[in-house]
Amino acid sequence: MELKNERKPGKYLNLVDALKLFAPGTSLRTALDDILRARMGAIIVFGKDDLSGIIDGGFRINSKFSAQRLVELAKMDGAIVLSTDLKKIAYANTLLTPKILKTSETGTRHKAAERTAMQLNSIVVAVSERKNKITVYCGQEKYILEKSAELLRRATETLQILEKQKEVFEDSLLHLNILEVTNLATTNDVCSVLQRMEIIKRISDNVKRYLIELGREGIIVSMRLKELTRNLQTERERVLRDYFYLKLSKVKTILDSMNFDFLLETSNISRMLFEELHEREVSPKGVRILSKLNLSEKDRDALIAGFDNLEKIFDATEEDLVEALGRRQGIEKFKKDLDKLREKILDGKRV
Asked: DSSP letters of 187-209?
């Protein structure tokens, strides 16, 4: 089975992207698992155009890649080099002679693999028969491949945590809805919602990491993840626009830079975003709540510009709305829809 539609290893930006090559079901992962089961060791270098000065001896193969060929060649002691496009096995039984001396590894094979990956800024795989593990080196990064069953177990457990967080988030969002339409929202209320959003985002990123390595075996988990995170980014954007209209980019950068432990205290978030040590009342622009209505973006922006905050929009008369939107057509219906939305929110219903 030939490797198809794969990006060149040298073009990978990070280890997460590189792990796509090793998903269960790919011919490469099949070969690595077979080598491990046979209790053999191996070093596999993902090719570069110029390997002069880093490999010595061995022999040129230049043969079409297949899992079976890779397993057979692993019976020899030296390193195996794959072509840049991963379609061919270029060299076998070669000696790696990287110039970089820095390494955190102890075994001879893993030392050579790490140094080579760092020098080439590419991917090198070390299979250890003694430790019974497959280690992927990608430039400066290192990752030990897990068995599919273990990855699936971790992904499922993490997904269960995500489901609980989603329930808490939805409750906090319903609470914020009520506070916003009654103009009682505080910095702490807003930060509580943002806290849950950011926690969900980071947990979902962990699940995505597992899914990359699981490949096709993670389809069910992937479907559930999409259900749980649907519209989350959109809601996050609207909350931020409601309260940080003029410094949106800065606030996003601050949130993205927060680590998980820092996020666990809402006071930390409030201090960083609102620059306040104590809780205070805040009024939303109305971006998020108005998005629940059948309203064009142009009309929504006109309302926000004309009334400044959500409370004034809800309290506006039909004449006020005509002046803000610059038309009389459809104003009566919009006013009724606005009142119905407020009633629905005050009844504690999802919008």
From this structure: HHHHHHHHHHHHHHHHHHHHHHH
What is the fold, at CATH topology level, of the domain defined by 287-346?
Answer: DNA polymerase; domain 1 (1.10.150)
Which DSSP string corresponds to 78-101? SEEEE-TTSSEEEEEEEEE--S--
Q: Which superfamily does CATH assign the domain made up of 9-145 to?
A: DNA integrity scanning protein, DisA, N-terminal domain (3.40.1700.10)
- Write down the pTM of the prediction: 0.79
Q: What is the CATH number of domain 149-273?
A: 1.20.1260.110
What residue spans of the chain are helical by DSSP H? 15-18, 27-37, 67-73, 108-120, 148-181, 187-214, 219-229, 232-243, 248-257, 260-263, 266-273, 287-290, 297-307, 310-315, 318-325, 331-346
Residue type, 314: F
Instruction: Using CB atoms within 10 Å of the CB of residue 172, give its burial: 0 to 12 exposed, 13 to 18 middle, 19+ buried.
Output: middle
Summarised one tens digit per residue, pLDDT across range 40-84 is 999 999 877 677 778 888 889 889 999 999 999 999 989 999 987
